[in-house]
Specification:
This protein is of the alpha+beta class. The chain has 4 helices and 2 strands. The chain has a domain of 67 residues: Sufe protein. Chain: A (Alpha-Beta Complex), CATH 3.90.1010.10. It comes from Malus domestica (Apple).
């Protein structure tokens, strides 16, 4: 298994089977903008208040479902290309994980990505 690697190398007990590697420097924005183009299309019928992430400065929608094999499936959309790049990273890492693996992800890994969480 491979750990998603960012410049701060956050520690988490969940080791995803997919990886992204880049350093937070001048090129990280380019990476995020590229990742935003890779986020799968989000069904417009899912752009509803119940799927909107509260507390984000960008308008963000997140859909999480469990498939017939018991694995989590995630989709995300928002109105900011950079934020969309962050969500691509999260969807890439968490999609196809078991629910208990998703629950093992610590907010510290998200804090290191600067996705707007407060506390750990």
């Amino acid at each position: 298994m491979v750990l998603i690697v960012f410049s701060s190398s956050p520690s988490a007990s969940f080791k995803p089977n997919k990886s992204l590697t880049f350093k937070f420097n001048t090129s990280w924005v380019k990476h995020l903008l590229h990742y935003a183009t890779l986020l799968p299309p989000f069904d417009d019928s899912s752009l509803v208040d119940s799927k909107q992430v509260i507390g984000c400065t960008a308008r963000v929608w997140l859909q999480a479902e469990m498939d017939e094999e018991g694995k989590m499936r995630f989709a995300a959309n928002n109105n900011s290309e950079i934020t969309k790049g962050f969500y691509f990273c999260l969807v890439l890492v968490l999609d196809d994980a078991l629910p208990e693996e998703v629950l093992q992800v610590k907010t510290g890994i998200l804090l290191s990505l600067s996705v707007g969480l407060s506390g750990a």
